[in-house]
Amino acid sequence: MSQIVTLQAFLDHWAGSDPEKAAIASTVRTIAGTGVGIADLVARGPLEEGLARIHGSDPNGGGDTQKELDVIAEEAICAALREAPVAYLASEESEDLIALNPKGQLVVAVDPLDGSSNIDTNVSVGTIYSILPFTEADRDNPNAAVMKPGTNQLAAGFLAYGPATILVSSLGNGTQVFVYDRESSEFIMARDQVEIPVETREYGVNQSNMRHWDEAMSGWIKDCLAGKEGPRGKDFNMRWVGSMVADAFRIFTRGGVYVYSSDKRKGYENGRLRLIYEAFPIAMLTEQAGGGATDGKTRILDITPHHIHQRIPLVFGSKGEVEKIASYY
Ligand code: AFP
Question: What is the DSSP letter of 316?
Answer without folding.
Answer: E
